[in-house]
Design a protein that fits this description.
Number of strands: 32
Mean pLDDT: 86
Number of helices: 29
Distance between the termini: 134 Å
Radius of gyration: 55 Å
Helix content: 40-55%
Amino acid sequence: MKQRTPAQETAPPTPADAKSTLAALHEAAHDRALPATTRELLLQAHQALTHSLRECEAERERYRTLFDAVPDPVSIIAWDGTVLDLNKAGMNAYRRPREEIVGQPIETLNPDLPQDHMVPVWETLNRGDTYVVEVTNMRGDGTRFPVEVHTAGLTFDGRKAMVAVARDLSSRHTAELRYRELMEAMDRGIVVQDADLQITYANVAAMKILGVGEDDLMNDAMRGEQWLVVDEHGRELPSDRYPSARALQSGRIIESTVVGLYHRTRQQLMWLTVTCVPQFPAGGDKPQQVLSLFSDVTRLKRDSTLFDRAQSMAHIGGWEWDVTPDRLYLTEEAQRILGHRPAPDTIEGMLACLRVDDRDRLRASLGQAISFGRNLDLEVQGHRADGRSFWVRVIGEAEAGDPINTRLTGTLQDITERKHDEETLRVQARSDPLTGLLNRDAVLAELESRLDDPLRSQLAVLYVDLDRFKVVNDVLGHAAGDRLLASAARRIQRAIGNEGLIARFGGDEFLILCDTGNDPSRPERLADAILEIFGDSFRLDGEEFSITASIGIAQAPLDGVRSQQLIQSADVAMYDSKRRGRNGWQTFTPELAEQQLHRLQLETHLRRAVNNDEFHLVYQPQIDMRNGDVVAAEALIRWRNHSLGEIRPDKFIDHAETTGDIVGIGDWVLNEACRQMREWQDAGLKIPRVAVNVSYRQFLGEDLASTVAAVLAEYGLPGHALELEFTERVLIEDAPDTLRTFAALRQLGVILTIDDFGEGYSALNYLRRLPIHGLKLSQLFVQGVPEVQSDVAICQAVTGIARSLGLALVAEGVETAQHRDFLLGLGVHVGQGFLFAPGMTPEELRERYPAPGMA
């Protein structure tokens, strides 16, 4: 309810009443009916009232001028809340004329006020205080704007009233919002604490730095029992010495203080640099809160500590040179680095400690610093008085504030150890860690350097490859292989001596560079020396191995003028040496280049052969030598190319193995042989199974068991209708995978045989563990029986192994009756060879071994 004005309060006279009074006085003063003395008194009264009204009007004008001069909206409000007056700023702010507001209740300006909103105002004013409140006022167009209203009591026209000053807060709210957004966007932490050091605000960066989650309460997360606070020296700080506490206590800014915060639970230490700013209330002399800005300097603190330690161990000395009198000052550490007693006291004395070329470089840099004010930073080498060399980094600059650069100051840092380490690393970067020889990159760089130098460009490259190294490496393991390579490298070094530069080029390949200008026959002579020194067997783990070398020789500039061209020529010659039977050397010739081109052509045609239907199979029967029955037929591949003609298997199989094309070719052979087997069975031929050779690359590169199962299923063949022949190399590949694959193939019913047994390094340990069915005795040993005793002994040994392991045995290369009779005498019943039949087309085989009833 609105409080009424007290009854005893009377309203002041209005301007209209004053004018009526003046008119009445004027009329009475000129009334002749009245006595002269009375008219005189009335005239004086008229004059006095006129003067009073003029003064009153002047006062009102001054009041209005001052009232309207106030920049904020000011309202005079009756005690009951009715607006009595409004200044010009108020009319502008509320966008209404004065007449629409004066005489209206205060709710006209603020419709959102509660019903009893005047009660706290009266209570405050009755105590003699000023009432302050933030509310939202309404303009004439209905829009709102925030204001802060200060209300005080006053007497207006003799009545008890209120004056209310409204400060528009729109700009302040916008500024506060932008300020808050700025604080949230800053990457420095900001925390505001009240007078009790309770956190009232923390920005996102502060929570991130302190590891406080979005859902955690800041004060809970920062409880004292969870944190240990230390100063920059690691000493624990009591709570009253925290930077924020000191700022509150002193009322002064505490700038850039480094503190450490250790979280006991997380066992994590972070370092912060903190600036604390006390904030005072309006008119107050004690801070009401403190704002702390901080950054995480953990990394900087750690780096600074490490730098301080490094400085103490880095042996850095100082120097100062007064140019005009040529007076040099060196610190004790600088004197120790230079190692001369007495220490030099002139710049020339210091320069004399350096090598001649470095002395000239430093002298020139000093001249640049004096003449142009340029800084200097050089690494130079010198010798101490005892003859030991040293490396030093010299840094210097003109002294600040010296316009004519008459004084230079700087540091000397002993970098001798670093330079030695760099040289060691340089050597290591150029060396092969296994053999100690130059590595591939180093020898290529050296070769390019020599080819670019006309005085050294007459040279030869020897490309050395160890024969059969991979087999030894696979049988004995990589550790033994590494020892073999190191031993081979030492032998090559002994053979070459000082006549060439040796490098390990990769794997079991070595490269040798030698000059030919003064000795044209040197490359061949060195190649002979290598072959001779490899004549002795290598001993590893109590076993002897014969390792030979194949060497290719190319000479510059005849066989190449660039490193890659020269090495490629030597490589081509080396492969020709291998082709000729290994353990020899071969010089590069244009004919070899032509052969290399032919091999590239062969590779190109071979890659397209399957898709162009250029392969076909012939079949050589395996015969029971006791009765002549066919027990199997081995599929043998043939290649007829439209451009190259008929190409023998020994011309392309090894190449296909090298390039990996053998995998696709092998899949085609498997598929075609099984298709033919299906056709024979449908025609009634009594051929129990077809034998297919499988490359070790097929064995390693694909899921062979799944491939075989799919092909058998496609042609409806039982597993025992297929025999797979593997070389001994399969025995020495990854044993677990080998066992799994053989077991899976055997489960399919496929017959598994090791081909050419005895030619390689027969891994008997693997042989007894693999689930195979038989062995094939290599024709290399069959050819010499019964005359050659070593071949006889090998055939007897292989037969004994097969019999003791319960394995079937097939003899290859049976070409004479003597071969057959000898083998039968050993108990070998199955053979294949030209004595029985060569490789035949399917039609020829059908004619020679027709189905029953078709003969």
